[in-house]
Design a protein that fits this description.
single chain, alpha/beta, five-stranded parallel beta sheet, 12 helices, 34% helix
Length: 387
């Protein structure tokens, strides 16, 4: 593809940044329009396990795999599955030094920082909110920014997440509420301030599932533990005021009321949290979401195939999307040929992951959730993957 073409990427998440990096490796410039005012404008979330065939493969094409390995935490591959009484049903130990099951953990902020540092200065335009997108009179996609400026790229890539502004150019599909909502919070300095919680969670991830609810915890870098509480509740629950930033004590009490007879060590994940509590209703696009080819526009990551987090696939797929789109653009002079080469394998790959994600959500948070989780993780371990 000609390096002179203007490629606009809406969204500076992992997928959009991977695309920009792979294009840069091949001498193709791009511009990333990002709503955030700076790289540190908001929390980037918890930890990720990068799969060798998706996230790590993307980093290989981006020329960043060795740097990733230096930043990753193989000990984070430890996994524990607990009952609501805190009994351990399954423990997958961390790998021995120098060994790994192939999915080492890395904090999102560290991974995003790695990608950002690899891009030429000015590639990411911070604080650039996209107000609208359209197909202009010339037949090219047009971005209108919040300050009124317009941009007419040769290629517009929607990497702008669940509520993508680019997606309506290609599809009328909207994310649908899954029936499950989560809250997200953090415990800091856990070794000294929360030693019992640190011992309960271990070095990696912990799942406690029962009563169609769950408490999930992840050990992060910086001696932090990220906590997710999950329950099957109506969609309005997250907007009902149950989480009140002005009254964290009352918020914790209301959340703990969802887990009345759970072990106090597990309840401490919420009771002792010292970070903000953020509601996160879980939405998904229809499994198998796809679109007809439209000139000069495509999607990647959550904008293309939003799914629940219960297949561990979202970030991995977004990065693989970005890498494969970048490689297709570098390999084909004709833009539409490149987009067809990218979308054709992406659709079935995303459909399979979305189906697995939906299956896990239903199973983990169903009446027999603890057994389903044990069977799922045990089978994954026997097959050579921790998650």
């Amino acid at each position: 593809m000609s390096a002179e073409r203007h490629i606009a990427i809406v969204g500076g998440g992992l997928g959009g940044l991977t695309l920009a990096r792979v294009l840069h490796v091949h001498g193709i410039a791009s511009t990333v329009y990002e709503l955030d005012a700076s790289p540190t404008a908001r929390d980037q979330g918890g930890t990720l396990d990068l799969d060798a065939e998706s996230g790590q493969r993307a980093l290989l094409h981006a020329g960043l795999l060795e740097e990733f390995r230096l930043l990753s935490r193989p000990e984070g591959e430890e996994l524990r599955v607990l009952g609501k009484d805190a009994t351990v049903g399954l423990r997958i130990p961390p790998p021995e030094p120098g060994e790994s099951d192939g999915r080492p953990e890395i904090d999102r902020r560290a991974l995003r920082g790695l990608l950002l540092d690899s891009l030429p200065e000015g590639t990411v335009r911070w604080g650039h909110k996209v107000r609208s997108v359209a197909i202009g009179a010339t037949g090219r996609p047009t971005l209108t920014l919040a300050d009124g400026r317009t941009v007419e790229p040769d290629l517009l890539v929607g990497a702008d997440g669940a509520w993508s502004r680019v997606r309506p150019l290609l599809s009328d599909a909207d994310p649908v509420y899954s029936g499950l909502s989560m809250v997200d919070t953090v415990l800091h300095d856990v070794t000294t301030r929360h030693p019992a919680v640190a011992e309960l969670v271990g070095q990696g991830s912990m799942f406690a599932l029962a009563d169609e609810k769950g408490l999930v915890a992840q050990r992060n870098g910086g001696d932090r533990i990220r906590v997710y509480g999950a329950a099957k509740v109506p969609e309005e629950w997250s907007r009902s005021g149950i989480v009140d930033p002005a009254d964290p004590v009352a918020t914790k009490k209301r959340l703990l009321d969802l887990f009345p007879d759970w072990d106090e060590g597990l309840r401490a994940l919420i009771a002792d949290c010292d970070g903000p509590i953020i509601p996160r209703p879980i939405h998904a696009l229809p499994t198998g979401h796809r679109w007809d080819r439209a000139p000069g526009v495509t999607l990647l990551g959550d904008a293309a195939h939003l799914m629940s987090p219960f297949a561990g696939a979202g970030a991995n797929l977004a990065m693989l999307d970005g890498a494969e789109l970048g490689l297709a653009l570098a390999s084909h002079d004709d833009l539409e040929t490149a987009l067809n080469a990218y979308e054709t394998p992406m659709f079935p790959r995303a459909e399979a992951a979305a189906a697995l994600s939906a299956e896990h959500l239903t199973g983990f948070f169903g009446p027999d959730g603890p057994r389903v989780a044990l069977d799922t993780f045990s089978a994954a371990t026997a097959g050579g993957a921790a998650r």
